[in-house]
Amino acid sequence: RSLSSEADERILSQDKNSVQCPVCFKDFTSATINGHLDICLLKGVTDSSPSTADESGPPVKKSRTGPEAVIKPAASSSSMASAQSPGVFSLFQGNKGKPPVQTERNGLFVGKQSPGSAASKGVKRSLNEEADLGAAGTETLRSQQPAPASSGQGLKTAKRLSPRTLLAVDKPLAEVLRPETLEEYFGQNKVVGEQSLFRPLLDSQEIPSLILWGPPGCGKTTLAHIIASTSKRKGTARFVTLSATSTSTNEVREVIKQAQNELRLCKRKTILFIDEIHRFNKSQQDTFLPHVECGTVTLIGATTENPSFQVNAALLSRCKVLVLEKLSVEAMGSILNRAVATVGIKIQGQDSTNPKDEDQTDGHSNSLSFGFIYIQQKALDTLAYLCDGDARVGLNSLQLAVQAQMSKTNLLAPDDSPQEILVTEEHVKEGLQRSHILYDKAGEEHYNCISALHKSMRGSHENASLYWLGRMLEGGEDPLYVARRLVRFASEDVGMADPAALTQAVSAFQACHFIGMPECEVILAQCAVYLARAPKSVSIYKAYDNVKTCLRSHKGPLPPVPLHLRNAPTRLMKQLGYSKGYKYNPAFSDPVEQEYLPEELQGINFFTWKPSDS
């Protein structure tokens, strides 16, 4: 082999046997690395240019500087040394001659440094040193630091923002303007009014476990947030928010475990708010029982469904149910007026010289920088009516209408003069598209409306019958479901007073099945009006109900079928007396005297019979 090949092999073998020092990053053999580490780790950072490998110490490593560091072209050796940090294993070094160390906890240098050298290197300062720098330098450094994450748009923040900024935020207006105090909470005076039972409990933070039941947009979640804000201000309780739509049982158990520790160590209660609590099944709701019972957590559940059907009876007995009503038109008007006043929108035709209408955040009025935004009072009134008591729909529709007009109109004309924006009633209606109808095909409103339709037809009120029918169909109800109920009504409430009513109802059901919505709506309307105008008789319904009562209240075995009424298809049955003595009615020209009821029920009349007669 050639000499070059042998040399290459020696080099490769040395590379395989060499070990790199983790301090000075030089290569040593396995036999000498331990001795070198003893010297390298124990020796201080005193020699920046080592002559031999065995006497070498760890190299000096330059400190990291932030993006705001200012590097000067000529720096003295003393300033360079002051900016240096120890080596990787500086933990083993003594305190003498140790450069300043940057702690991770506060990010400030604890070593002695001159303000000048710190400023020239752009390193972080202590609080005292930063105060000595001067306003200009401090503001420069602060401007270069990343802005802290926002904790949410509260009402106080909303009042400081201009209309254009506030209406252009990512959050819905209903979330931005969510009330933080009971004084800003409208429409539920029966529950949280000054004279209500719950108001002093909330003021004293003696809050029991609650189930907030009400339609969407009535203020259930807002009331929970007000309780949370009060608890945070007074520091009397810890508030935790969960949603039953995205929370598992294990997460609930973890929160309860934290609540137990909080109560044991800090003597502080935990208020647990569960939104859409009806989404939890029965076993998941049972998780709360022992902890609500012993007071580990104060449960506040919000639901749009009837708690009698959707919440466990055991959990329901441990909570107080607060029924929140659908917001009235007056309450919606107050909410919308508060919104336009907070945002800075002016109502057309009203005096706008109030200095409160001007946004002084930027040092000048809102009109000069953004242009006036007006809304018609009629538009607010229409919105209050059409949102159907849903504050969330009302506020978000207002935001949509204003945003649409702001995008269409250039707020600043070419000559920099402010340009006005007017939101009209048509803009509000366009944002809603149609009347917002509260109707849940699987919820309580479904049964409320069908009950109202049934009772209106029973009372022969054809106009009310049409209204409740339209309420259901326009809300998205299945027309075949309504048709089936009309068939039932034809026998239950009309019955023998007009036997043709059943034919009308069945024909309406078949027609709806053939053509569907929206064409079948007039067919259902015709049938509903026919049944409302028809004479009523519940004799069949009551007679059959008496039969069921008689059967269920019978004591002992039911009486056997009389032998003469039994069929006898075989010889054996005939020999046993089946069908013996039966009189075939068509064979007689006169009425036949024959018993058809069991012996103990002979003479009973279910049309007039009462349970007390048995």
UniProtKB/TrEMBL annotation:
GO terms under biological process: DNA synthesis involved in DNA repair; DNA-templated DNA replication
Annotated coiled-coil segments of the chain: none
Region (Disordered): 47-126, 138-158
Ranges annotated as biased composition (Low complexity): 74-85
Domain UBZ4-type: 18-45
Matching PROSITE patterns: ZF_UBZ4 (PS51908)
Single annotated GO MF: zinc ion binding
InterPro entries in the cross-refs: AAA+_ATPase, AAA_assoc_2, AAA_ATPase_RarA/MGS1/WRNIP1, ATPase_AAA_core, DNA_pol3_clamp-load_cplx_C, MgsA_C, P-loop_NTPase, Rad18_UBZ4
Keywords: ATP-binding, DNA damage, DNA repair, DNA replication, Metal-binding, Nucleotide-binding, Zinc, Zinc-finger
CC terms in the record's Gene Ontology section: nucleus
Polar residues bias spans: 140-154
Family recorded in the similarity comment: Belongs to the AAA ATPase family. RarA/MGS1/WRNIP1 subfamily.
Protein name: WRN helicase interacting protein 1
Organism of this sequence: Neolamprologus brichardi (Fairy cichlid)
